[in-house]
């Protein structure tokens, strides 16, 4: 196995590890918001999602994809792209759940498992090739990389 393949497996392992920790942040903060602070389920869900996405951004930026972007504006653009991609994959999750669990009446727990696998894969792809790619064009510019899918190594 060469260095590039080893880095790829390390990145995927780190992504999965910090993904589990993001889930812990989501559930833990939800528990604090509802049980300790007494917030309602919807407000607590939104706040815990934000906490988990912020945690995921910080760990993905530094530990998984090792972003080299510096400066306030570059980091804000990266953060906005990360939140936007997570909103998009959240919508994919909601649509899968609505269509297969609500409309077609498949077992919701099985659908949720499949949906989560789809979302994890999409989140990785979006983070790897769009949010944290060194070759991704800046938002609003044509850039040299038309498809935004070049390797970062």
Descriptive overview:
- The protein contains 4 helices and no strands.
- The protein is an all-alpha fold.
- It has 2 domains: 64 residues, no CATH class; 85 residues, no CATH class.
- Helix 1 packs antiparallel against helix 2 and helix 3 runs antiparallel to helix 4.
- The longest helix is centred in the first third of the chain and has 34 residues.
- It is globular and about 45 Å long.
- The two termini are 16 Å apart.
Secondary structure layout plus pairing:
Layout: H1 3-36, H2 41-64, H3 72-103, H4 108-131
Helix pairs in contact: 1-2, 3-4
Would you kindly provide a brief summary of this structure?
With 153 residues, this protein is mainly α. It is 75% helix and 0% strand.
Termini distance? 16 Å
Task: Return the structural class.
Answer: mainly alpha
Q: Whole-number average pLDDT?
A: 87
Helix content: over 70%
Count the strands?
Answer: 0
Domain count, please report it.
2
Q: Sketch the topology as an H/E string, one letter per element.
A: HHHH
């Amino acid at each position: 196995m060469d260095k590039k393949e080893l880095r790829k497996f390390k990145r995927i392992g780190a992504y999965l590890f910090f993904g589990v920790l993001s889930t812990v942040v989501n559930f833990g903060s939800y528990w604090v918001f509802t049980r300790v602070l007494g917030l309602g389920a919807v407000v607590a869900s939104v706040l815990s999602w934000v906490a988990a996405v912020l945690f995921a951004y910080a760990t993905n930026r530094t530990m998984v994809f090792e972003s080299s972007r510096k400066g306030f504006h570059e980091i804000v653009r990266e953060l906005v792209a990360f939140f936007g991609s997570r909103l998009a994959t959240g919508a994919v999750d909601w649509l899968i759940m609505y269509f297969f669990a609500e409309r077609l009446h498949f077992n919701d727990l099985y659908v949720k498992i499949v949906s989560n696998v789809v979302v994890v894969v999409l989140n990785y792809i979006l983070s790897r090739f769009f949010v944290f790619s060194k070759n991704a064009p800046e938002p609003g510019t044509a850039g040299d990389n038309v498809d935004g899918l070049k390797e970062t190594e």
